[in-house]
Design a protein that fits this description.
Length: 364
């Protein structure tokens, strides 16, 4: 693991962000205790339009976040050589940011997989800064106007995890908008059928944005759990009878998206840890939408994501119900958390199994 010491200069130049951002002492204190995380995989930065555009968006968002007083952990997960164009541009763009140099940690590590990269930045955020709140977000999405609103419930003790609800999905590519709405609805339905608290409407969880409290909170089981541990310490494996089958069923394995981004929400809700959704007027970058819309590579990715994320949710929820039926829940969960052992789950084909009234039932 190589940590890059960026060529950051502490200056007295005024912020470029404008007056629309809250600058109260309370807001600045919250920001000083919040670490944002992001990952970039841009092997063709400077040569490919999509990589270059996403890289430039990410750097602009990192710059704005640092100027607002947040700390940031950024992972460059493509193989970055000494002459890497993105790293050079990052050093150039962030060199004049007015901030303490230690507020930015940049890691270079060749990592394949969305989940693995997200785990690394969250783990490093906790280790490097000991923050009260950590974000899980995509670096190229500009959340800076909304972060204060998204973190307030955590600092007020009103939630253990906050998710973002976009007030409108109109700025997204058509296939992404339709696909995410369907997935959100199906996942909400299976949680409700299992008796897991999930509100009275589907939540906008497919955008992947999470803000997480890094301190223990009470659960309905009479013991405290740190919500951050659900993202960084929980691991999952399929049982012996399912492991070989899922290799052929899923395009994306359980650790690619589900275990780090989605499963923690299911476990938190099941344990009685409050997951609060905060609505914000997020707008997707229109140039990124134009690049993705109609691109067959992005369409194929959306289809595979939709199939795998929903099916893996069903496997987790079905396994929880199975453990409850056997009288093993929540002991197996706490054993996994306390002893760094994986939670074993099974694979249940949705055409063969259903969840109804808090029970896992075989279809006729």
């Amino acid at each position: 693991m190589m940590e890059i010491q960026t060529e950051t200069q502490i200056t007295k130049s005024p912020s470029k962000l404008g007056a629309e951002f809250e600058r109260s002492a309370e807001a600045l204190e919250r920001r000083s205790q919040t670490v944002l995380t992001g990952n970039v995989f841009l092997p063709n930065y400077g040569r490919d339009e999509s990589d270059t555009q996403r890289g430039n968006l990410a750097l602009e968002n990192v710059r704005k976040a640092l100027e607002m007083g947040y700390k940031y952990v950024l992972l460059v997960s493509h193989r970055a050589e000494e002459d890497d164009e993105f790293v050079a541009e990052m050093k150039r763009k962030l060199a004049g940011v007015s901030m303490p140099e230690e507020n930015l940690k940049v890691y270079k590590k060749d990592i394949v997989g969305y989940g693995a990269s997200r785990w690394l930045v969250m783990d490093r955020a906790v280790r490097d800064f000991l923050p009260r709140v950590v974000s899980l977000q995509e670096a190229e999405k500009d959340l800076t106007p909304h972060i204060d609103a998204l973190t307030k419930p955590l600092f007020k003790g009103e939630a253990g995890i906050v998710t973002m609800r976009r007030s409108s999905l109109k700025s997204l590519p058509d296939e992404q908008r339709r696909g995410e709405a369907i997935q959100d609805s199906v996942i909400h339905g299976m949680l409700a059928d299992a008796g897991i608290p999930c509100g009275d409407r589907p939540e906008d969880i497919l955008n992947g944005t999470r803000f997480i409290l890094n301190e223990p909170v009470e659960t309905k089981y009479g013991r405290k759990v740190n919500p951050m541990d659900l993202f960084t310490k929980m691991n999952y494996v399929y049982d012996e009878g399912s492991a070989e089958k899922v290799e052929t069923v899923f395009k994306y394995n359980i650790d690619h998206y589900s275990s780090r981004v989605y499963f923690p929400l299911v476990l938190a809700r099941e344990m009685g840890i409050k997951v609060e959704e905060v609505e914000v007027p997020y707008v997707h970058d229109k140039n990124q939408t134009l690049l993705e819309e109609g691109d067959p590579k992005f369409l194929e990715k959306r289809i595979n994501q939709a199939k795998d994320i929903v099916a893996q949710h069903f496997d987790l929820v079905a396994s929880i119900l199975k453990y409850k039926e056997e009288g093993k829940w929540p002991e197996v969960l706490f054993d996994a958390l306390d002893h760094d052992t994986p939670l074993v789950i099974g694979h249940y084909e949705m055409r063969e199994w259903e969840i109804e009234g808090g029970k896992l039932l075989k279809r006729n």
